[in-house]
């Protein structure tokens, strides 16, 4: 017969493992990954892997062929299409136009977007109306606005009529019909389309700045311009980097505006990689060569994305 020792208490879980309660034993078991979440990500996974990456891989395969896109037979040419691209002056003109477009649109869109966002933060009368007006070009389809701009920049269009009315008729010219001005006219349209997005992003970034910081600067005697460039601008540096990334990828795949306005002309003055791929594959029937240009454009997009991503991380660590 066992005698209970005075003062002895039985503690849950302190006995032999076989006497522990099931709930406590379950808590000590490692939790296994449950596959319920896979059901939700499976459609997106199938689409991205089965459609996007398959298309990229198939495009890479076609870039090694000489094929017109309709013939049942094709000829393998290896890397000949890539060699042809690097020796094609039109390809390098498209690269040059892309670089010019990036610098021009990034400088103007970010500059105008920053200024307009700062003005909207001063709470002007009918500020919401200004936001709608500035953002409206972003949601307008280029197919709608292209005929309007073709008319504006025509030899007898509204721009030349305005210049003549204010005494500057001497500089009036057919803006879209000559290589020296066609590219700049297209870039102005691109800036008009994209500035609204920069305004909204900068406005959202400025809304996150601590107001106490601005109030402290006012107490120290800082004026509006001093606060704008010494406090607000450094605090929206991440937004500027994001806009640079979006602009770089956007100009690489731009197609609709230059094609609808100038069809890549005159004399390939407004040729971009997107318009060159369309013209080469659809109009000329050189699908293999167009596929090689597509792969080169993809490599450029990935490289620029990595560069800006590394820069963003460095800026974040520096901050």
UniProtKB/TrEMBL annotation:
It is found in: Cell membrane. Residues 95-308 form the ABC transmembrane type-1 domain. CDD domains: TM_PBP2. Residues 1-27 are annotated as: Disordered. InterPro entries: ABC_transporter_permease (IPR051393), MetI-like (IPR000515), MetI-like_sf (IPR035906). The chain crosses the membrane at residues 37-56, 99-120, 132-153, 183-205, 287-308. It is a multi-pass membrane protein. Gene3D superfamilies: MetI-like (1.10.3720.10). Signal peptide: none annotated. Keywords: Cell membrane, Membrane, Transmembrane, Transmembrane helix, Transport. It holds the Pfam family BPD_transp_1. The keyword Membrane applies. Belongs to the binding-protein-dependent transport system permease family. This is Carbohydrate ABC transporter permease. It comes from Pseudonocardia aurantiaca.
């Amino acid at each position: 017969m066992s005698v209970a020792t005075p003062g002895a208490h039985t503690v849950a879980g302190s006995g032999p493992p076989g006497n522990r309660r099931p709930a406590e034993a379950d808590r000590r078991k490692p939790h296994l990954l449950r596959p319920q979440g896979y059901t939700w990500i499976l459609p997106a996974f199938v689409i991205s892997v089965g459609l996007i990456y398959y298309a990229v891989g198939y495009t890479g395969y076609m870039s090694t062929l000489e094929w017109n896109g309709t013939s049942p037979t094709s000829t393998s040419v290896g890397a000949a299409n890539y060699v042809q691209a690097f020796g094609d002056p039109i390809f390098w003109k498209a690269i040059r136009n892309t670089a010019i477009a990036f610098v021009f649109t990034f400088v103007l869109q970010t500059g105008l977007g920053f200024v307009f966002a700062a003005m909207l933060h001063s709470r002007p009368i009918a500020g919401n109306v200004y936001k709608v007006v500035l953002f409206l070009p972003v949601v307008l389809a280029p197919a709608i606005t292209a005929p309007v701009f073709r008319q504006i920049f025509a030899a007898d269009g509204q721009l030349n009529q305005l210049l003549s009315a204010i005494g500057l008729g001497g500089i009036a010219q057919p803006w879209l019909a000559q290589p020296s001005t066609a590219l700049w006219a297209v870039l102005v349209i691109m800036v008009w389309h994209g500035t609204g997005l920069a305004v909204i992003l900068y406005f959202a970034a400025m809304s996150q700045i601590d107001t106490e910081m601005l109030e402290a600067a006012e107490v120290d005697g800082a004026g509006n311009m001093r606060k704008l460039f010494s406090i607000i601008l450094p605090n929206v540096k991440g937004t500027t980097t994001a806009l640079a990334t979006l602009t770089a990828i956007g100009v690489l795949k731009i197609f609709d505006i230059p094609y609808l306005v100038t069809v890549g002309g005159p004399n390939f003055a407004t040729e971009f990689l997107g318009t060159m791929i369309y013209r080469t594959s659809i109009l000329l029937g050189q699908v293999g060569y167009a596929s090689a240009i597509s792969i080169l454009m993809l490599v450029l997009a990935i490289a620029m994305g990595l560069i800006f991503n590394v820069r963003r991380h460095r800026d974040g660590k520096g901050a």
